[in-house]
Amino acid sequence: MLKPNSIIQADVIDGLRSLPDGTFQLIIADPPYGNVLVDHAWDTDLDADSYLAWTAAWFRAALVKLRPNGLIYVFGQLGQREHRWIEVTALLCRSGAFHDQLIWDRVVGYNDRRDSYTPAYEICLVLKKSADAQPYFNKDAVRIPYDKCTIDRYLKDKRYKDMDARRAHLETGKFATNLLRVPSLKGSSREKVGHPSQKPERLIEMLISSSSKKDDWVLDPFFGSGTTGVVGQRLGRKWVGIERDSDYCEMARARLRRLNSEY
What we know:
- By secondary structure, the chain is α/β, with parallel strands linked by helices.
- It has two domains: 6-136 and 177-261, Vaccinia Virus protein VP39 (Rossmann fold, 3-Layer(aba) Sandwich); 138-176, no CATH class.
- The chain contains eight helices and ten strands.
- The protein has helices at 12-17, 48-63, 84-95, 148-155, 163-172, 201-211, 227-234, 246-261, and strands spanning 6-9, 24-29, 66-76, 97-105, 121-128, 143-144, 174-175, 179-181, 217-220, 238-243.
- The strands form two sheets. An eight-stranded mixed sheet has the order 1-10-9-2-3-5-4-8.
- α7 (227-234) links the parallel β9 and β10.
- α2 packs parallel to α3, α6 (201-211) crosses α7 (227-234) and α7 (227-234) packs parallel to α8 (246-261).
- Keywords: Methyltransferase, Transferase.
């Protein structure tokens, strides 16, 4: 029996093998990018060829856990050292079927290069199980509100005859694009718990809200500090996280205990 809202402490492939096939509506994967966080052994312990072979293995193991109408989001990054993401993209699109590619605009760049523009984004490849799959997606769940000044300005446009309908449309907000502008977490952020590659809750919230429904199963095979679990639980999803590092498992459990104490 699959236990909802649980952390499996295991290597990613072993953890995935323990889960039932065709269960998860949504998989959010934020794997080690490979030689990016050079101070952390878990991101530097594989050469390029071994990293690609490992990526292919965990992705194939994850894909069979996805429901036929589900989506899998895989984060990655380009930059001075991380050109292997281009190879990862091609590799994943041969195993799964390409659906979309999102750009996470971190808003503030990170000072990683001296010979080119300052990097300020990461990439999220979106894949489905097969080319003919029809994945669930709720665009209304990720509308972006117009600010009051914009709404007031549009309502002054005399071309619109039905102002009540126009106001309702404006107050509903505009559809989000595949450029997700969400500020990255800084050291002073209330969300920050000590993980070096922790994603903002708002970013993960957009993926979970748009690509799953209440009570759906959501899987994070690189659970880290537990952001997927925190957001998934808040949104009424059943989640499972896989994480091999005991310190990160405890970090995630501490966040979840704080979340549960709020209710």
